[in-house]
Design goal:
Blueprint lengths: L6 H14 L8 H4 L2 H30 L3
């Protein structure tokens, strides 16, 4: 990392870099991107769509069947 060429900014730059080393770690990819929650919600959503399709088919077959 380079320091600024202006001496008046060097002390400010050094104080920023030393305080920055005490920062907390950034979260990992899977912590910032909830892939597990997305997969789980897609799974439950597909199950609910299948149940809805079976219910609608059952109602349709009862209504249109005797005709």
């Amino acid at each position: 990392m380079q320091t600024p060429a202006f001496p008046s900014l060097q002390s400010r730059f050094k104080s920023l870099t030393h305080s920055g080393s005490q920062r907390t770690q950034t979260p990992g990819f899977f912590q910032s991107h909830p892939i597990g929650e997305v997969v789980r919600s897609l799974f439950f959503s597909s199950i609910l769509w299948m149940v809805l399709a079976m219910v609608l088919y059952g109602v349709y077959s009862m209504v249109a069947g005797p005709r």
